[in-house]
Amino acid sequence: MDNFLQVLLDGVLNGLVYALVAAGLSLIWGVMDVINFAHGEFLMVGMYVSYWLGFILKIDPLFSWVAAGLFLFILGAVTYKIIIRNSLGKSGMAPLLATFGLSMVLKNFCMNRFTPNFRLLSGTILEGKTLSFGGAIISVPQLVTALFALVVLSLLYWMLKKTRLGWAIQATAMDKEAAELMGIKTENIFLLVFGIGGACVGITGGLMTSYLAVYPEVGGLFSLIAFVVVALGGFGSIPGALLAALLIGLVESFSGFYIAAVVKYVAVFAVYLAVILLRPRGLFGW
Amino acid sequence: MTKKTTLSDRLWYLFLAAALVLPFIPGGIGNSFHGHVLTMVLLYAAMAQAWNIISGYCGQTSFGHAVFFGIGAYGAAMAVVQFNTLPWYGAPVGAVVAAVTSVLISAPCFKLKGHYFAIATFAIVEIFSRLFMIWDWVGGAIGLDYPILDDGWRNFSWSSDKNGYYLGALALFTLIFGVVRWIESHRMGYYFRAVREGQETAESLGVHSTAVKLSAMALSAGLTALCGAFFAQYNYRVDPPMVMSLDISMKFLLITILGGLGTFWGPLLGAAVLIPLQEYTRAYLSHLGSGVDLIIFGIIIILTMIKQPMGIMGIIRGVTRRTSTVPAKEGDA
Q: Does ipTM come in above 0.90?
């Protein structure tokens, strides 16, 4: 029974982190119908920002996530200005492939500059701290990241549903031309959405350096999981992404523990396929 | 299409003649680095063309081709390493298994639209590569290493003079491009393009779109597997990241789209630009550290998508459209 609780908690914590990784992707996908293939590399860049701030300036990831979020907001906005705006609408695959090109550039730039070595921050405030809960052990850095995920996702959801900006974003997602006729500057909305998408994943990456090592290929698996989460949740749906991410986190931890660690991602992707074939637009898709 | 020889026909026969003569010229291929690059150009052009059948002509963008490529590679390698027999038996078995697998995978996935189809095919690549990683019979994560074999066509293996590999790649290239040439001018090609341009319209005219898509997929997967078998023979080993990763799947897309999606010459043009670029930058820019070749590769992809998503064929059409009074038509190539 102890094992069960441990596995359950691991799944939920991982799931919440996946939800935050996926939130930015979901927003961009929902509003612009673009898959940002460089999403995992954005996460990696966020992790490097926080790692170097921690390593050189001794700023703890508990604070440097702000810088990582800001940096990625700018990177997202620049990506939109230079790459997405110029490839959008030209052909269906153009933005996807352009961002794939960007992912190659970012990954190999970091490979070239920072070597493929794994880098883990030491001496962080939360390092090695654990909580015990009914016999299960929780890693505090992971718990903090998961709680952040809940806060950021709630803010994002509130912003979309309750603010004028959120309504403008939703209007743009529904019908770009009609939104323009209503006086919404959709160009600015797209720019902002890409920036916010980048900021979400930057914050996640910034926090993750408190318990995960950073290396140039760290984004690969996270981006795949984020794609699966978004497609499973239904594009553009923040609650959908949250529930899908929890499902994926639980499938990962339970199959990893009760079947075998090596099959956990096979199980994740198989569950995804099974669900998507039954509900081709995702659990909460339109 | 009439029986009249077109410019494209003439270019095709001229290209084949030139490519066939090359290894018999001293210094043509042999054991040289440019021989290796030319062999890779032919192989990747063939792979991209096989992908082009389902994704370019039939309009179903597949990110799953690494699975079929990998099955073909494992087919040849298993024949040699585990069964101590000839790759000539493994390759066709791999092609058939790949074609059957592709139909089993695609039949449910074809009902997914747009990005959902794309992500489902990513997931399938991940499932297959992870299963091959833990499947001991096929070598698991370590993969399969070839034993030392006698040179020659029997083992499809050459250690010093690489003309054999070049000719093998040329044969594969000719087969796959030949198949596409044949399809383009026959009923099947019209079915493919009808489904791409509008599934509902095609069905209303009596085209059974699911059967058309599945047959295009099976053909594409089988031919892709043959390329995989060649790749295993050429590298003398296989392991899952090498033959069954998403990066391999992306190669099919990038080459075809850089050259021109859904065009006959696109895959060759794309491979002729990207492969030498990658091989020569890897060889000559290595002093700048690792990854420089892939950074340049990435920048070219970004620029292509921003400037000309129709690829090199798009640029060529733009030029010919400006210089000739006869408008170039979509699908002519």
A: no
